Design the sequence.
């Protein structure tokens, strides 16, 4: 017999993975355009939604992403750079 909590967790994970939880449509579209899937998609959409939240952190995030693009950074180096850049900007 399967534990009911386990079923609930599996159902919630499946709903989250399929986008059943309403996310920012603009972020979802960007993820679709980039053909992202799985963990990469989840990470991208989460970050996009956080940045779309507005305020100083969002504008710092956009500026830092642009700087990372200009430096042609990718992967862990890009993530580290953007994180440090946003922190330094006070976001």
Sequence:
């Amino acid at each position: 017999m399967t534990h009911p909590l386990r079923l609930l967790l599996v159902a919630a994970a499946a709903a989250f993975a399929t986008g059943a939880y309403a996310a920012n449509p603009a972020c979802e579209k960007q993820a679709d355009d980039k053909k992202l899937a799985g963990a990469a998609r989840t990470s991208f959409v989460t970050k996009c939604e956080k940045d779309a939240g507005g305020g100083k952190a969002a504008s710092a995030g956009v500026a830092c992403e642009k700087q990372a693009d200009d430096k042609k950074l990718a992967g862990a180096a890009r993530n580290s750079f953007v994180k440090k850049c946003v922190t330094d900007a006070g976001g």
Observations:
- Residues 73 and 81 are 8 Å apart (CA to CA).
- The mean pLDDT is 76.
- The chain has two domains: 23-52, 54-91.
